[in-house]
Specification:
alpha/beta, Rossmann fold, Arc Repressor Mutant, subunit A, nine-stranded mixed sheet, three-stranded antiparallel sheet, 17 helices, 12 strands
Length: about 375
């Protein structure tokens, strides 16, 4: 906003541009940065000389849109639907969206009572396939529920499949969730998620760049993904085929320096092929909410150490474990043979064998020693990694 523009003019100007300019238009974003909202609006309305970077044909198309734009009416319709308009400089504007540079939204239409700026500070994106498997839906809901229980906001796109499961998982845990739509926030899309999106608006936030009543298009879904990526600390892809739009979100997150994470699936599943491709690069493999929080959270928010069950033999002193491991599985052995296998002296091996006998691991047969049946099971389990 230039020094001569009134806040109301800035608001009306950005609402006007949200009706005229497509989301993510970097040329228009550069106009706003270089000339200011007021000058861009004036040129579009008055038919003055075209701004640089577009053809005359495109300029005429933008001007035609501008002739039909009614920002006062859009604001009135929005207020009637319980929708507010945020723009850069507003106290509720999330500063991380500024990382998008000239592709930053001109403004955001918001349904819901919470502060978008505060919620975005501790948020994670969960995205994935629309035609997901039961596994994908389960993992999305479980991850979202776990994140919500840890006080994290789950951000997604409100679509069928993984995204709907993520929103439901967060809501089901009594947590916070944000749906970023590729259409006007007053007209839920997809229609089959009308009830879900209305519930998100009541308990969370529904946001979008497009003015009231605007419809989604394939290109709008793609550019919408940059907002999901920029708004959050990291993006988790649950299931995605090679051409999934979820990969666009993940790659946008990588360009912005955000964390990217992927949930692995079966190697034979085409719906996990895109995730696996990400995991071959810089994307981090995650399997639960604790691992996500360890990556995106504050210092000290560590996931629990993953390890198999502790076997009784794990509690033995290291030299005793070496002697136990040196005993043959199916026959008795003399102490000197055990000592060689354990790389110790015969006297030390004998001392350890007596210790192991007292614990029920070995039994003596004359001058030889043999594993007990119980010990044989323990040793074989340890050797096989079961």
């Amino acid at each position: 906003m230039t020094g001569t523009e009134h806040p109301d003019d800035e608001l009306l100007g950005r609402v006007f541009l949200s009706r005229v300019v497509e989301p993510g238009d970097e040329v228009a974003g550069r106009w706003v940065r270089e000339y200011g909202v007021g000058e861009v609006v004036r040129r579009l309305r008055e038919g003055a000389q075209a701004l640089p970077g577009v053809s005359y044909k495109r300029w005429d198309g933008l001007r035609a849109r501008g002739l039909r734009a009614e920002p006062d009416r859009d604001l009135a319709v929005a207020r009637e639907a319980g929708v507010r308009f945020l723009y850069p400089g507003d106290i509720e504007w999330p500063g991380q969206l500024d990382d998008l540079g000239d592709a930053r939204p001109l403004g955001l239409w918001v349904r819901g009572r919470a502060s978008l700026r505060m919620w975005a500070l501790r948020s994670v994106a969960l995205v994935g396939a629309r035609a997901c498997t039961e596994y994908g839906a389960h993992m999305a809901a479980t991850l979202a529920g776990g994140l919500a229980e840890r006080g994290w906001v789950v951000v997604s796109g409100g679509a069928y499949g993984v995204e709907g499961a993520a929103h439901r998982g967060a809501l089901g845990s009594g947590g916070a969730t944000v749906a970023v739509l590729a259409c006007g926030v007053d007209r839920p899309y997809p229609r089959g998620h009308t009830q879900l999106i209305n519930r998100i608006a009541e308990q969370g936030l529904v946001i979008g760049e497009l003015p009231p009543g605007d419809h989604p298009t394939p290109s709008r879904f793609i550019v919408r993904n940059r907002v999901i990526a920029a708004l959050t600390r990291g993006t988790v892809v649950v299931e995605a085929a090679h051409r999934s739009g979820s990969l666009v979100t993940a790659r946008a997150a990588q360009r912005l320096g955000r964390h990217t994470m992927g949930v692995p699936g079966p190697a034979t599943s085409g719906l996990s092929a895109g995730v696996h491709e990400l995991l071959r690069g810089d994307t981090v493999l995650v399997t639960d909410a604790a691992e996500v929080v360890e990556l995106v959270g504050d210092m000290g928010e560590l996931a629990p150490e993953r390890r198999g069950p502790v076997l009784p033999r794990d509690l033995l002193e290291p030299r005793a474990r070496r002697v136990l491991a040196a005993l043959p599985g199916r026959r008795a052995a003399r102490a000197d043979e055990v000592a060689r296998g354990a790389q110790t002296t015969e006297d030390d091996a004998i001392a350890r064998l007596y210790e192991l006998r007292s614990l029920g691991y070995v039994e003596r047969h004359g001058d030889s020693w043999k594993l007990t049946r119980q010990a044989m099971m323990s040793v074989h389990a340890g050797r096989s990694g079961c």
